[in-house]
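Quick one, tokens below. Sequence please?
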């Protein structure tokens, strides 16, 4: 299963939790209405839903043996859920429903190029809209407080497996179909390293038998000012962590509405993005042995010890960064790189312009005078802080 297929499969699992729409007025119970709503929304995409045995009452009911079959771009997929549980699900007057929790046990998505299995998943505080609303907004009108999956296993076309301990997404403080706060945490991604894979030779040489990582993303949005803050951390076991933080301005509800209206018009999307401003940015690498492993391996290849090889690299840095054309920034890089190579702990690059910088101006400077970027961005590079 490719990376894009994995993303699509995880999205499908999430989609099942919240893509639900209005049922027929003639439904005899809340349970029947909720199931009709769910079936109608899922089938908006052309999928075919088959419910299994239904047990329980309006307060809590389960469906044992759910199958959803779909064909997209000539590719067929089957999503099966052993047990689907609705807790506190109630139809709403606008043709949708709400639920305290929707639980999934033993979920499997099978495609021609692999499959995805999930031991358990749950969506909490679900607000599902009516079919016409879901169709009009591509599901963006649906809301939930949290969605979590545990015991995930991805099987690729080559039969290799990638286990993931858990995935948890949260959202809160919704405004016009957009959450003002959200997070995504992926824990325990473990990718095996195949000794027969030519691309894995360098990792094996560094002493890695697997690559294990956690990914965390969080963000907050102020719909009044249009300010968006996003933070992402990717941490690899016995490697290190990469942190990225970004604050941009100008992402108002009006801009978001125009971007949605632009659809797949990339030129229009780019035009709208140029109106945003960069307030600050930060990239930080925190080492956890990866740098030392690389230096050791490279020194061995050169037939020298690590201190000698490190000294050689430090002497090369000024020449390597001279192409930037900004002496002050080049000096900052040289100083930080030297300190980091002597004692690899952390390396941080920050950008904080004196005033929020329009992205259009940033792009113009990058094309016309790239050497000026470090200065206009207020860029800095530090080590081991």
């Amino acid at each position: 299963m490719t990376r894009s297929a994995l993303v699509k499969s995880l999205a499908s699992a999430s989609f099942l939790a919240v893509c639900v729409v209005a049922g027929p007025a003639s439904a005899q119970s809340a349970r029947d209405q909720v199931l009709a709503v769910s079936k109608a929304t899922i089938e908006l995409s052309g999928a075919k839903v088959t419910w299994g045995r239904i047990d329980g009452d309006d307060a809590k009911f389960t469906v044992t043996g759910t199958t959803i079959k779909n064909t997209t771009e000539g590719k067929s997929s089957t999503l099966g859920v052993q047990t689907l549980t609705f807790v506190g699900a109630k139809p709403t007057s606008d043709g949708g429903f709400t639920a305290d929790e929707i639980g999934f046990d033993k979920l499997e998505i099978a495609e021609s190029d692999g499959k995805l299995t999930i031991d358990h998943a749950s969506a909490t505080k679900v607000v599902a809209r009516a079919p016409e609303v879901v169709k009009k907004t591509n599901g963006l009108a649906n809301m939930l407080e949290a969605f979590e999956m545990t015991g995930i296993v991805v099987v690729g076309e080559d039969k290799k497996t990638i286990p993931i301990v858990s995935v948890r997404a949260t959202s809160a403080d919704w405004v016009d179909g957009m959450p003002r706060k959200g997070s995504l945490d992926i824990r325990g991604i473990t990718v095996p390293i195949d000794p027969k894979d030519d691309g894995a030779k360098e990792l094996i040489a560094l002493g890695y038998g697997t690559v294990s990582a956690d990914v965390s993303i969080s963000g907050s949005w102020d719909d009044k000012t249009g300010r968006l803050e996003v933070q992402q951390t990717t941490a690899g076991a016995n490697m290190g962590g990469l942190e990225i933080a970004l604050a941009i301005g100008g992402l108002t509800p009006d801009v978001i509405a125009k971007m949605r209206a632009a659809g797949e018009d990339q030129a229009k999307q780019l035009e709208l993005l140029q109106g945003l401003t960069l307030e600050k940015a930060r990239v930080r690498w925190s080492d956890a042995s990866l740098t030392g492993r690389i230096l050791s391996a490279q020194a061995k290849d050169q037939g020298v010890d690590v201190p000698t090889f490190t000294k050689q690299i430090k002497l090369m840095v000024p020449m390597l960064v001279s192409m930037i054309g900004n002496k002050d920034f080049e000096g900052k890089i040289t100083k930080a790189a030297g300190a980091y190579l002597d004692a690899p702990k952390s390396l941080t690059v920050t950008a904080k312009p004196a005033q929020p910088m329009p992205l259009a101006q940033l792009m113009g400077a990058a094309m016309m005078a790239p050497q000026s970027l470090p200065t206009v961005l207020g860029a800095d590079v530090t080590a081991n802080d």
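The two ends are 40 Å apart (CA to CA). The longest strand covers residues 97-111.
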